[in-house]
Structure to design on (271 residues):
């Protein structure tokens, strides 16, 4: 992941983040399972995959100094089992941006693909920020 | 595992204690270093008044409950909608519970429609939502 490429203000509907790839190796999965108190098997926990996608997205834009971004809601759909060792590619685009009172809501859509370009997961995240 | 899937079934609860260490571990594992989760000085100056757990950490516990109930059917055929209602903070104990509301059948495939919630030790709802899990192709 390169540095903060865009500012929050530049995230307008239709903006597409550069795709990000992750190798979901056993070291990553065991670190994740330790963090969430979970026991593992041969497959990557779907929320570990989502976590990568969310981190890639939030890590690629900068918030105005002193402001916060809070995860307000999340939708997810899981399509395929993801074996440990798979490399995934995350695609994220800004679907909507809504001003509601003193809150700004950013709605992001994500699609995640495996090495064979098969969709393994899709999601929709709402990120709220006080304005 | 799926033999006892029926309407009204209550899932085995998952109980987890949130600590600052766990939040930091999650930040390292996920790569999400948003200061609202890990920087006590920064978070203290925000309206939240202190650090909070990642919403996705709380949601991981929901997914664990669903995995215990449905196994690979959840991992490769699950659908979830969640609203983060209140922040979980270091020191909180979270209890995740859920049940099957109804089982629908569409084109010979059965789907379990479930509700879940995650509450803290004060009974406040931290996360709430619903899930749909594809159960089988031949459930009669």
């Amino acid at each position: 992941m390169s540095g903060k490429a865009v500012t929050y203000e530049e995230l307008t509907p239709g903006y597409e983040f550069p795709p990000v790839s992750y190798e979901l190796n056993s070291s990553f999965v065991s670190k994740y399972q330790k963090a969430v108190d979970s026991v593992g098997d041969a497959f990557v926990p779907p929320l570990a995959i989502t976590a990568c996608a969310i981190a890639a997205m939030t890590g690629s834009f900068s918030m105005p100094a002193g402001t916060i971004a809070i995860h307000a809601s999340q939708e997810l759909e899981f399509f395929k089992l993801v074996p440990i060792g798979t490399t995934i590619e995350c695609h994220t685009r800004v679907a909507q941006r809504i001003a509601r009172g003193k809150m700004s809501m950013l709605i992001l859509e994500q699609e995640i693909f495996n090495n064979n370009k098969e969709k393994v997961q899709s999601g929709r995240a709402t990120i709220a920020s006080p304005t | 595992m799926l033999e006892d899937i029926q309407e009204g079934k209550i899932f085995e609860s998952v109980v987890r204690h949130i600590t600052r260490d766990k939040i930091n571990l999650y930040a390292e594992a996920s790569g999400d270093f948003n200061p609202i989760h890990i920087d006590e000085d920064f978070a203290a100056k925000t309206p939240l008044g202190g650090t909070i757990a990642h919403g996705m950490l709380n949601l991981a516990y929901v997914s664990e409950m669903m995995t215990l109930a449905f196994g690979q059917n959840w991992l490769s055929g699950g659908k979830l909608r969640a609203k983060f209602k209140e922040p979980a903070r270091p020191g909180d104990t979270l209890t995740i519970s859920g049940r099957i509301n109804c089982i629908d059948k569409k084109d010979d495939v059965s789907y379990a429609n479930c509700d879940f919630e995650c509450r803290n030790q004060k009974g406040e709802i931290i996360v709430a939502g619903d899930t749909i899990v594809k159960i089988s192709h031949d459930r009669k």
